[in-house]
Structures are given as structure tokens and as C-alpha cells.
Design brief:
Layout lengths: L4 H11 L3 E5 L6 H15 L7 E5 L2 H18 L7 E4 L13 E5 H8 L15 H5 L2 E4 L10 H11 L6 E5 L4 H11 L1 E5 L2 H6 L6 E10 L2 H6 L4 E5 L3 H14 L4 E6 L5 H14 L11 E6 L13 E5 L3 H8 L9 E8 L16 H15 L7 H25 L1 H14 L5 H4 L5 E6 L15 E4 H18 L5 E6 L12 E5 L11 E4 L4 E4 L3 E4 L27 E2 H13 L2 E3 L4 E3 L2 H16 L5 H12 L7 H18 L11 E3 L7 H10 L7 H16 L2 H12 L9 E2 L2 E2 L4 H10 L14 E2 L2 E2 L10 H21 L5
Parallel strand pairs: 1-6, 1-7, 2-4, 2-5, 3-4, 5-6, 8-13, 9-11, 9-12, 10-11, 12-13, 14-18
Antiparallel strand pairs: 14-15, 16-17, 16-18, 19-20, 21-24, 22-23, 25-28, 26-27
Helix pairs in contact: 1-2, 4-6, 7-14, 13-14, 18-20, 18-25, 18-26, 19-26, 20-24, 20-26, 21-22, 23-24, 24-26
């Protein structure tokens, strides 16, 4: 199928190294425009990143794109197989971002950049940022990014990467002024489809009529104009549940009525999404019912490839209304009607704009005025953009001013977060969702692992607002408690025991203020697969939250086998230079050198470093990263371990004096060896920062550029813990250590290399001031690339056979 003109322009721009901001109508083929340059370059071997990270604001979008493109890429017949993965909270199948085409959420992408990854421990916090900054990046549905948190962080990331990796931003509903302003900030090409281009796309040859209703959305309105497929969208879960119950009572007997919102158990939500894609999809041959009505919240606002004859929606900001309208008459030749309804009012007669507050509420009012003036018109692409322009431009100008004014603060906050790995910064830099996780259980005191139960995210205001009603219901039902909150008991930092939780009853709404986890009395709530979770609606008192469905089981690690310092370096170089076959997932991974090569070349060109500088630097730090293990005390520990573990196994595993160990024999599946590890591990000296301190002057002499030296030193110092401060112990090289180092260096340098400048005898000290500074982008980006190469090569080397 040939490309549309706009898709070809996107490909040409990205392939030439430009970044693009694309605005095109829903259903026009933006996803194909985004992925075609990457797929073409993959097949042809063009100069382009070998990894693509496709970030979306909603989990359901990532899942949908993965479902579609995992199958498509298998059918493309690539000469080189492409690994398509998903990485979301619900589907954490690629926590280290090792796939080639990765569909994920913006939250995951930004948390990886900030070194506070949602899918990994803080100790591994620096592992994935290098994948982000070396990939072709796609950010879809930009209009859904929180303007106070997610949007500024994303823009800062893209400003850092200007001219280094290609990126594409996509939206259907930003004002033209916003598109051009962001393009200017990011040195990107703005590409806004004209009405003529839109009409030329077959999927846009459809008729969608706009109707504005001065009354609230109710079941009679929905059922009164229903034919075969109708969708009704409410702004809050409570109103959606109420409307669903009303429609079920009034709908024709042959109508299948479903409800979709965020408060369903995972398996029930997935079942409804599957039904929705089948019954509202383009292929009518898959329909199993003649009549279907969906009631939903904003969860269907974007991404879902579904259509309807009639779409009803409560008033929302114009961008959201347009997105919702995209679920009506979506395909070529279809005709549909969109009805926009007035919002419910409070006791004072004022509209209830929630969840839209502040400037969003103002946009809602402007949207109402704009849509009323257009009532009865055809809602085509020009009309959609005009509505967005009129309703959003004033707010967008204020937003642009705010983004510009806060740029330096955001940059500093991001640098500090990367440096300190402050997880709490996610609320300021990624998403400030003030929700409480609510689980249902008759006896919270008996719960050993409360987070292992499936819960429901309830907005703080909704939970606070429902408390008085819940308390009254508890009195009516003669229940002794309403809600309980949990807090972990203090424990020692090194404790390996499970966290112990202390539960206390909620006496008034203020007790919920600091709670993140709340247990509800089963007699005061209800859950069904049809309506989802409801507070203050008595259900079956014996229902309780089920255990979470775990998609990934903890891996049982293969036993470690001893290897020399030299063997370890050689295996790491193999993992860096050659493809790696992941036996656990039965997938081949890119060579690390190839994964990072595109960004490395662009960084070298930008800063005037000789070609191949970063590749050479990566190989040097692989050879030198474990130099601290050549310390007399570290080798004494390793030799003692081998003697004792050999005694446990009844065999001689002792080492010769000249054997420079990098790893020792260890089987974590054997209880006696785990006990030995607990007894001896505290006696094992540290080695990472010690390695950096020993090679510090040598690296600076060889590299010459202080920025590169800082980045390399930080990668070595933090190859086991992303938060290592720079404090190191003493280091005194073993007599056999210098020869071992020379052998390792012979694999990355001509001859055995000049080792002069390496400090073989060091007192305790601190090199924090010599490490990478996150506020210096040239140091930060090089560090993130190097530390990913180093850490993944280290991990993969354990499965590389010599």
C-alpha cells in the first residue's frame, strides 16, 4: 500500500535527521507515518537508530499497538527478525528495554530517563536511560500530557536530544499556535495537514454531524436515537455507572450494553476491551450482536480503533470532544451523529466540570460556546481544528509562557532527580495523580502482603467526599469499621525480611490525608464484572480483592561459575560486540555496540570528538571497570569463599595464589550457600568506586577531554549502584593484578597498552567531584550511554560461553 503524501514527508524528514511535530486527524494513518521510517531503515540497514520507543499516555494504547505490530512485523518477512515488545505496568515484559520496537507509556519512558525506573530497582536506575537517548522516539497523543508535569519533562528530554536522535511528536488536537511554538523550541519541522490533504485520505471521506443538547446526558437520549452501535461517554466513573444502569433498564431487549472505566479488575477490563474491539471494529463480519451500546469514561477517548453510528458525550475541553468524536463514523463512507450535552449542575446551578479544573474548566466553557455556534454543522477536520483553536488558544498561550518561564527550574529539577534518584520527584516531573489505592478485605490485620492484592485507584477528592456517606452506611449496617489505612513498620535498611504493615482504623476523613493504601469494609462497597467497583453501594459482604495476576515470575538464576578477571573482560567484550541470545525469552538482542552507535556518532559530531571515540571509551571501561577486584583484600575474600563453598560441596574449589578472580562459584538455590553468602558478603570489600579512583588519572590522560573522563568515571563508579556517591575504600593491587590488567587491556588497545597513570596503591577517599555532573548535558548523555553498555555487558557476560 503506497504512502500518503504526508506519510512520505514524515519519512523523508526523519530519515534526513530532522525532528517532526505532526498534526493529523484521527484515523488518518499517523501510526503508519511514525513507524514506516524505522521499519524501512531496519530492513535496508539505513543510517537510523536500531531501536524505537513508542510512548503513549495510556496503557491501553501501548497494548493495542503491540497487538497490531507484533503480528505485522512477523508478516513483513524481515531478513533480520524484529523483536516487538510491550513495557507497561500491566505488561512488564521488557523491563530493560532490550526489544527493537518497544510500545510503552510515557510514564515508563520518563521514569527511565530520570533514573527512577518504575520497572527496576533504584540500584539499576541508570540502566535504561541510555536506551531512551539512543532510540528513535515517538510521543503520541501529546495533547493528553499533563501540562504541569509530563509535558515539561518530555520537552526537556527532546531539547537535550536535538540533532542526536530523530523524534516525532503526534497529535490530532493541538492549536496551530502551540504546534508552531513547540516546533520552534525543539528545532522540529511542524507538519499540519491541510483540509485538502485530509480529504484525499480515504478514511476521512465520511460525514459526522454535530448536535448540541442543552440538557444533561441520560438514558432516554441515548436509547431514543440508538440504531445498531452507540457510545456514551461521561466525565466521571460515578455518572458512567449510573447511566449504564439506566440504559440497561431502557434499552431494547436485543441490545448488548457494556460499561468501561478505570475501576474494573484487570481481567474484567481486558474482556470488555476485547469485546469492544470486536463489536465496534471496522470488520463487521466479526460482529456477534446486531445491537450494542457502550457506556464509558475518558478511557476510550484516544487510540481505540472503534466506530459507532451515534456518539453521546458530556461537555469536555474541545480537544477531548474531538478525540471522542473520532470514535464515531471513523471509517470511509460512514455517517454518524455526535451529541454534546450540558454538564450536571450543583446546588447553586453551576456546571460540575470535574475532573476538569482550573484552566481546563475555563476551556470547557469556551468549548460550549464554540460548539453551540456550530450546532448542526458537519464536524470535519477543518471544523475540529477551528473549534480547538477558539477554545484552547488563550490557555495554550498561558501554557507556553509558563513552560518558557519554568524551563531552567525544570532542567535543574531533572538534573537533581537523576543525581539523587528521588522517586518522589515523579509526582512533579511525570504525573501528579493524587489517588489512593483501595482494596477490599474483611480483616486487613491478617493481610501479609497488601500490595499483592488487586486494588482500585480512587481520586483523593472522591474518597474524601464519600467518607461521610460510608460512615452513615456503616451505622445503618451495624458495622464496626469503615476504612483502614496501612503503614510499614520501620525496619533496618539491610533487612531481607518482608515488610510488616500496621493497620489502623480511619476515624475521620483527615486520617486519609497521608494514606496511599486503604482497605474498605466489604459490606460498604460492591463489585461486579458488569459495573465495576462502587463505594457506598452495599454488595456481597464476602467479596474481597483477589491476588494480583503476576505476568512475570521471579527468575531462578543459574549458578555462578568462577572466572578470572581476564575471562570476565573477554566475555563482556563479546556481549558488547556480538548479538546476544536471551535464552530465557528465546530472543536475539542487538549487539550493544550497534544499539548505541547512532547516538554515539551524532554526539561525536556535535562536540567535535574524533569518530569512534565513544566506542573506544566503552571498550576501555569494560576492560577496567573491575580493577578494584584486583585489590589484595578482595582477592583474599574470593579465595576464602572458594575454599568454604568447596567444603560445602565436598570438592576442592580452592584457587591458586595467582588466580585473579572476578566471580566465584555460587548457587543461590542451595540453602547452605545462601547462608554462607549472608555470613560472608558483609566482609567482601567494595570495588566499583575503587576501580574508578584507580584509573581516574589514566583515563584523563588518554581521553584528554574532561567531560568524557567524568562520564567514563561515573559509569565505572556506578556500574553496580546508580546512586554511588564517589566514596571509596583503600586499594592495594595484588602482585598478579598488573599482569591481569595488561592482558585485559591488550584486547582493547594495541599491545598491552600503556598502564602508566593507573594508581595501584590508594588510601580511602572521595572522587564525587570528579564524576559526571547531570546539569552538563554532554557529560550526562555520554554517561548514560556508557553505563548502559557497561551494565548490560556485565549482566549478559554471565551467559556468554567462552
Amino acid at each position: 500500500m503506497p504512502l500518503y503524501d504526508f506519510q512520505a514527508r514524515v519519512c523523508d524528514l526523519l530519515s534526513s535527521g530532522r525532528a517532526v511535530i505532526l498534526q493529523a486527524p484521527t484515523g488518518a494513518g499517523k501510526t503508519r507515518a511514525a513507524l514506516y521510517p524505522f521499519l524501512r531503515a531496519w530492513e535496508r540497514g539505513d543510517e537510523f537508530p536500531r531501536k524505537c520507543i513508542y510512548s503513549v499516555p495510556l496503557r491501553v494504547l501501548a497494548d493495542q499497538f503491540w497487538d497490531e505490530y507484533a503480528e505485522r512485523t512477523r508478516n513483513f518477512g524481515f531478513r533480520r527478525p524484529m523483536d516487538v515488545t510491550a513495557q507497561t505496568g500491566a505488561r512488564p515484559e521488557d523491563p530493560k528495554l532490550e526489544g527493537n520496537l518497544i510500545f510503552t507509556t510515557v510514564d515508563q519512558t520518563l521514569s527511565n530517563l530520570l533514573n527512577i525506573p518504575y520497572a527496576l530497582s533504584l540500584a539499576q536506575g541508570n540502566l535504561n536511560a541510555g536506551a531512551v537517548i539512543s532510540s528513535y522516539l515517538i510521543f503520541d497523543e501529546l495533547h493528553l500530557f499533563d501540562p504541569a508535569t509530563m509535558l515539561p519533562t518530555t520537552l526537556h528530554l527532546l531539547r537535550m536530544l536535538r540533532g542526536i536522535v530523530p523524534f516525532l511528536i503526534m497529535t490530532a488536537t493541538l492549536s496551530e499556535e502551540m504546534v508552531h511554538a513547540l516546533a520552534g523550541q525543539l528545532d522540529a519541522e511542524p507538519l499540519i495537514l491541510s483540509s485538502e490533504e485530509a480529504v484525499a485520505i480515504p478514511s476521512q471521506r465520511k460525514t459526522r454531524r454535530l448536535n448540541v443538547v442543552e440538557e444533561e446526558l441520560d438514558a432516554r437520549a441515548v436509547c431514543g436515537v440508538h440504531r445498531h452501535r452507540s457510545i456514551a461517554i461521561c466525565n466521571t466513573v460515578g455518572r458512567a455507572q449510573q447511566l449504564f444502569e439506566e440504559i440497561r433498564r431502557l434499552a431494547p431487549a436485543n441490545a448488548s450494553v457494556r460499561l468501561l472505566h478505570s475501576r474494573f479488575l484487570r481481567q474484567d477490563r481486558e474482556a470488555t476491551e476485547q469485546w469492544l474491539r470486536r463489536e465496534f471494529g471496522q470488520d463487521r463480519g466479526l460482529y456477534s450482536v446486531d445491537s450494542a451500546i457502550l457506556v464509558a469514561t475518558q478511557v476510550v477517548e484516544v487510540g481505540l480503533d472503534i466506530t459507532s453510528e451515534v456518539l453521546h458525550t458530556e461537555l469536555a475541553p474541545a480537544a477531548s470532544v474531538v478525540q471522542r468524536a473520532g470514535r464515531c463514523a471513523r471509517y470511509e463512507g460512514e455517517t454518524g451523529d455526535v451529541y454534546v450535552y450540558a454538564l450536571p449542575t450543583d446546588q447553586g446551578g453551576k456546571p460540575r466540570y470535574a475532573p476538569y479544573t482550573g484552566s481546563q474548566a475555563d476551556i470547557c466553557q469556551r468549548t460550549w460556546d464554540v460548539l453551540r455556534a456550530r450546532c448542526g454543522s458537519v464536524l470535519d477536520f477543518d471544523g475540529e481544528l477551528a473549534a480547538v483553536e477558539q477554545a484552547h488558544t488563550v490557555a495554550d498561550r498561558h501554557l507556553l509562557e509558563s513552560l518558557q518561564a519554568n524551563r531552567l527550574y525544570v532542567a535543574d529539577r531533572i538534573a537533581r532527580t537523576i543525581d539523587a534518584q528521588e522517586r518522589g520527584a515523579a509526582r512533579e516531573l511525570i504525573r501528579d495523580v493524587d489517588t489512593r489505592t483501595v482494596i477490599v478485605h474483611p480483616d486487613p490485620q491478617s493481610i501479609e502482603h497488601p500490595w499483592a492484592l488487586e486494588g482500585f485507584g480512587i481520586y483523593r477528592g472522591s474518597l474524601f467526599g464519600a467518607y461521610d456517606e460510608l460512615e452513615q452506611l456503616a451505622d445503618d449496617c451495624d458495622e464496626s469499621w469503615v476504612l483502614m489505612t496501612a503503614e510499614p513498620l520501620p525496619e533496618e535498611e539491610a533487612s531481607q525480611e518482608h515488610t510488616v504493615w500496621r493497620w489502623r482504623s480511619v476515624i475521620d476523613a483527615q486520617d486519609l490525608e497521608g494514606a496511599l493504601l486503604v482497605a474498605a469494609n466489604p459490606s460498604l462497597v460492591s463489585y461486579t464484572a458488569e459495573t465495576g467497583f462502587r463505594l457506598g453501594v452495599p454488595g456481597h459482604g464476602d467479596w474481597q480483592s483477589p491476588p494480583r495476576r503476576t505476568a512475570v515470575q521471579r527468575r531462578a538464576f543459574a549458578p555462578y561459575k568462577r572466572e578470572t578477571f581476564q575471562e570476565h573482560v573477554l566475555r563482556m567484550l563479546q556481549a558488547y560486540d556480538q548479538p546476544f541470545y536471551d535464552r530465557d525469552k528465546e530472543r536475539e538482542r542487538l549487539p550493544l555496540a550497534e544499539e548505541l552507535a547512532f547516538a554515539a556518532r551524532r554526539l561525536e559530531g556535535k562536540h567535535g570528538w574524533p569518530p569512534g571515540t565513544l566506542n573506544r571509551l566503552a571498550r576501555w571501561i569494560i576492560a577496567l571497570h573491575d580493577l578494584g577486584k584486583l585489590d589484595m583484600r578482595w582477592q583474599a575474600w574470593a579465595h576464602r569463599w572458594q575454599k568454604e563453598v568447596g567444603d560445602l560441596r565436598g570438592e576442592d574449589l580452592s584457587l591458586e595464589y595467582s588466580y585473579m578472580a572476578a566471580h566465584t562459584d555460587y548457587d543461590e538455590q542451595r540453602a547452605v550457600e545462601k547462608a554462607l553468602n549472608r555470613r560472608l558478603r558483609s566482609q567482601r570489600p567494595n570495588h566499583a568506586v575503587e576501580s574508578a579512583a584507580a584509573v581516574m588519572d589514566w583515563l584523563l590522560q588518554r581521553i584528554g577531554d574532561p567531560s568524557l573522563a567524568r562520564a567514563a568515571l561515573a559509569a565505572i563508579a556506578r556500574h553496580h549502584s546508580a546512586g554511588a556517591s564517589g566514596k571509596h575504600g583503600s586499594f592495594r593491587v595484588h602482585p598478579a593484578g598488573t599482569d591481569a590488567t595488561g592482558t585485559a587491556m591488550s584486547w582493547v588497545s594495541e599491545g598491552k597498552g600503556d598502564l602508566s597513570g593507573i594508581e595501584w596503591n590508594l588510601p580511602e577517599g572521595h572522587i564525587g567531584r570528579r564524576l559526571m555532573r547531570p546539569a552538563r548535558e554532554e557529560e550526562l548523555l555520554v554517561y548514560l550511554l556508557l553505563v548502559r553498555a557497561l551494565r548490560l555487558a556485565d549482566q549478559r557476560s554471565q551467559e556468554v560461553t567462552s
